[in-house]
Design brief:
Blueprint (H helix, E strand, L loop, with lengths): L4 H7 L6 E4 L3 E5 L9 E5 L11 H22 L3 E5 L15 E6 L19 H15 L1
Bound molecules: guanosine-5'-monophosphate and zinc ion.
Length: 140
């Protein structure tokens, strides 16, 4: 896609600090470095979000995640690592080329927070069971 920042990074039109590249995917340091070693993993083909991601592309992308995560662990020696993916503006997506955030964690506070606060104290189990049937129907 011509006006996509990440497609431009793949094409080498915008500079980036790459950590891994093969025929199908690219991993590079996020410019914002929310935590030290904050890395983005993207497919080389443009897909906007998880709803548009072909299964084969997802499989290839995720297959590379353990080795990239392990290389970040070896390099930065974090105590943990979050894997995050935002889909849609309401979920915090700002670049509309599918990507995974790999966020090494160092017992730090205040750098990265979840969008939710607390789980609902009394989940509506009967309601959830009805939704589970709908989800299962949609998957079949
Ligand atoms: P999102 O908010 O869509 O989940 O994440 C987009 C990420 O892309 C942000 O964390 C942002 O810092 C990163 N980003 C945006 N533009 C560039 C860029 O030109 N280079 C790099 N390396 N990262 C970028
Ligand atoms: Zn793109």
């Amino acid at each position: 896609m011509t006006d996509c920042i990440f497609c431009k990074i793949i094409a080498g039109e915008i500079p980036s600090v790459k950590v891994y590249e093969d025929n199908d995917i690219l991993a590079f340091f996020d410019i914002s470095q929310v935590t030290k070693g904050h890395t983005l993993v993207i497919p080389k083909h443009h897909h906007e979000n998880v709803f548009e991601l072909p299964e084969g592309v997802a499989a290839t992308l995720f297959a590379a995640v353990p080795k990239i995560a392990t290389a970040l662990q070896t390099t930065f020696e974090p105590t943990g690592l979050n894997i995050l993916n935002n889909n849609g503006e309401s979920a915090g997506q700002s670049v509309f080329h599918y990507h995974l955030h790999l966020l090494p964690r160092y017992e730090e506070t205040g750098l990265y927070g979840s969008l939710w606060n607390e789980a609902q104290a009394t989940p509506d189990l009967e309601g959830l069971k009805k939704y589970a049937l709908k989800v299962a129907h949609s998957l079949s």
